[in-house]
């Protein structure tokens, strides 16, 4: 499947700003492994300017939601990340999975 198809995984988490250094320490190794996956075509992280502990990211994948749940999110490298970061959450994470529409509605400069 080419990179104009597939899904976009959009995640928002909410942590205390004082937990950010520990969060980034746990996040970076997993981020590096995820972006090395051949099916991952895009990954960008965002931070709320008003609430620094609110972080969002977008991951684009060439595969389906079912593939992501069965083959990607079950990889062992997520285990330590979830064990370390989930207790930092001050409210539940928000997750959306959207189908990508295609190249006619994709732009990059």
UniProtKB/TrEMBL annotation:
This is ABM domain-containing protein. It comes from Aspergillus wentii DTO 134E9. The lineage of its organism: Eukaryota, Fungi, Dikarya, Ascomycota, Pezizomycotina.
């Amino acid at each position: 499947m080419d990179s104009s198809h597939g899904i976009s995984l959009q995640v928002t988490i909410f942590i205390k700003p004082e937990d950010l250094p520990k969060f980034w320490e746990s996040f970076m190794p997993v981020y590096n492994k995820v972006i090395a996956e051949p099916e991952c075509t895009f990954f960008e992280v965002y931070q709320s300017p008003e609430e620094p502990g609110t972080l969002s990211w977008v991951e684009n994948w060439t595969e389906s939601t079912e593939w992501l749940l069965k083959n990607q999110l079950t990889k062992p490298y997520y285990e330590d990340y979830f064990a370390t970061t989930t207790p930092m959450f001050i409210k539940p994470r928000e997750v959306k999975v959207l189908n990508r529409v295609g190249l006619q509605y994709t732009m990059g400069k």
